[in-house]
Write a structure and sequence with these properties.
The protein is of the alpha+beta class. It has a single domain, classed as Endonuclease/exonuclease/phosphatase (Deoxyribonuclease I, Chain A, 4-Layer Sandwich), CATH 3.60.10. The protein is 23% helix and 27% strand. The chain is built from six helices and twelve strands. The strands form two sheets. A six-stranded mixed beta sheet has the order 3-4-2-1-12-11. Helix 1 links the parallel strand 1 and strand 2. The radius of gyration is 17 Å and the shape is globular. It binds one DNA strand of 18 nucleotides through loops. It comes from Rhodanobacter umsongensis.
DNA sequence: ATGGCGATCTATGATCGA
């Protein structure tokens, strides 16, 4: 029997990579993810701490932006081979929200979907247009004969079970029927929503706001997702959220979400 | 209905996030 190797894939919205660096390094050391997507770097390209990550054992590529947004991909003991940056479909869109690479034999798309608040309004329109563009790119990835993951902060609460208090989010862009339909359309291409697939009826959150001890009380949202194409979904072993990271000192408001997969 | 917190620069408040 040939032994299968397993890989841990993780997505983490760090909410400022330089202010979060000690937190990020501790997490990498403890959890040792093989492939990582980071969002909300909030740093220009020249401010990305590639040397520190390299010293911690991770090769990286990144698409930075001053103050806002920004995405990166990391490979444990390997350099990601970039295949794209910037979401196709609108040459006027300068926001850094998409990066794509081959890492450990997996095609990885790291995404940071727009928040979209307040809605209605131009920010919500931009969110929906961006998600349409993502669906277009995802369609060309889903049926590849290679393992593919699209992971990141989708800024969509897929269902009532994915928010601690659905009523209080009725007017929120993350919870609008249009946002949820856009996410649903994406899944219908053939992607597996890893956390929901593994957790079934059980609640699992990836974000808790900074107010009223919501993290400690586990009053959160599930908005960070890992979508696996059919080739990769066959190897899905387990999934989870490293909630301990959210309970550290000076944490991001998100925790890393992850899957473990076997690769033939 | 609002604001609560935290990060960033425009910096001692304004803006954004979710």
């Amino acid at each position: 029997m040939p032994r299968k190797r397993t890989l841990k894939l993780s997505t983490f919205n760090v909410n400022g990579i330089n202010s979060r660096l000690p937190n990020l390094l501790e997490w990498l050391e403890k959890e040792k993810p093989d492939i990582v997507a980071l969002q909300e770097l909030k740093a220009a390209d020249q401010a990305f701490p590639a040397d520190v990550l390299e010293a911690a054992g991770y090769g990286s590529i990144w698409h930075g932006q001053q103050s806002w947004n920004g995405v990166a991909l990391l490979g444990r003991h390997t350099a990601p081979v970039e295949s794209g940056r910037g979401l196709p479909g609108d040459a006027t869109d300068k926001q850094s929200r998409y990066i794509e690479a081959a890492i450990h034999g997996i095609v990885v798309a790291g995404i940071y979907s727009p928040n979209g608040n307040p809605q209605p309004g131009p920010k919500f329109d931009y969110k929906l247009r961006w998600m349409e563009r993502l669906a277009h790119r995802a369609r060309s990835l889903v049926d590849l004969p290679h393992p593919v993951v699209v992971m990141g902060d989708f800024n969509v609460i897929p269902a009532d079970e994915d928010v601690y208090d659905p009523r209080s989010f009725r007017k929120d862009a993350l919870f609008q029927p249009e946002s949820r339909r856009a996410y649903e359309r994406l899944l219908k291409q053939g992607w597996t929503d890893s956390l929901r697939h593994v957790f079934g009826e059980k609640r699992i959150y990836t974000f808790w706001d900074y107010f009223r001890q919501h993290a400690e009380r586990d009053r959160g949202l599930r908005i960070d997702h890992l979508l696996l194409n059919p080739v990769l979904a066959k190897g899905l072993i387990e999934a989870g959220v490293d909630r301990w990271v959210r309970l550290q000192e000076k944490p991001s408001d998100h925790a890393p979400a992850w899957v473990r997969v076997s690769i033939p």
